[in-house]
Amino acid sequence: MRFLIAFVAILGYASASALLAPLVYGANPGDVQAAAIDATVAARDAVRAIGEGQARAAEAVIQHNTEAVRQVAETNRNLHENAYWGSVAASQNLVAAAQSQAAAIDGAAAATRAAYAGAAYPYAGLAYPYAANLAYGAAIPYAGLGAYGAYGLHGLRAW
Q1: Are 117 and 125 in contact (CB under 8 A)?
Q2: Rounded Cα gap, residues 102 and 94, in angstroms
Q3: DSSP the chain
Q4: What is the 3-state secondary structure (H, E, C) of 89-128?
Q5: For residue 112, what pLDDT band results from cuts at 50, 70 and 90?
Q6: Are the C-beta atoms of residues 150 and 141 closer than 8 Å to each other?
Q7: How far from the centroid of its chain's Cα atoms is residue 105's Cα?
Q8: Candidate from 32-36, 75-79, 93-97, 122-126 with smallest mean pLDDT
Q9: pLDDT at 52
Q10: Does pTM surpass 0.70?
Q11: Fewer beta carbons below 10 Å: N end or C end of the chain?
Q12: What is residue 1's predicted lDDT score, i.e. its pLDDT?
């Protein structure tokens, strides 16, 4: 047991001397220089890590902004393309509707001309500007004046 107490005492003295020696004898110049170099390297590493982190963050922001601009440009292109083709389709529908309406008016005018030519104007097939209506003894404007007669539908086939 004495041996154990002596051993612990020696260990305690050795560790205390290692801790207290710099205070009693002063610092070792080599250790001080090594500690200064270690602190400088650690500080530079910390600054480098901060700079690299900021550079990565800036690069991520640039990539995010670039992607956002690309998506906005693609959306604008899609909107303009859809608007263009929508207006083309609307124009084609408008032309088709006008042609259908003109065909309907042509049919109605032809039916009206046929009805009038057969019933009221027995001589409407003559090539005279006026057809003589023998029943009433008066000159009536000829129903066959121009493409659509006297119905006011001139120029309807302008397309």
Answers
A1: yes
A2: 12
A3: -HHHHHHHHHHHHHHHHHHHHHHHH---HHHHHHHHHHHHHHHHHHHHHHHHHHHHHHHHHHHHHHHHHHHHHHHHHHHHHHHHHHHHHHHHHHHHHHHHHHHHHHHHHHHHHHHHHHHT-TTTTSSSSEEEETTTTEEEE-TTSTTTTTSS-TTTT--
A4: HHHHHHHHHHHHHHHHHHHHHHHHHHHHHHHCCCCCCCCC
A5: confident
A6: yes
A7: 44
A8: 122-126
A9: 94
A10: no
A11: N
A12: 74
Type of residue found at 58: A
* pLDDT tier at 59, thresholds 50, 70, 90: very high
Residue pointed to by tokens 């263009």: 84
pLDDT, residue 65, reads 95
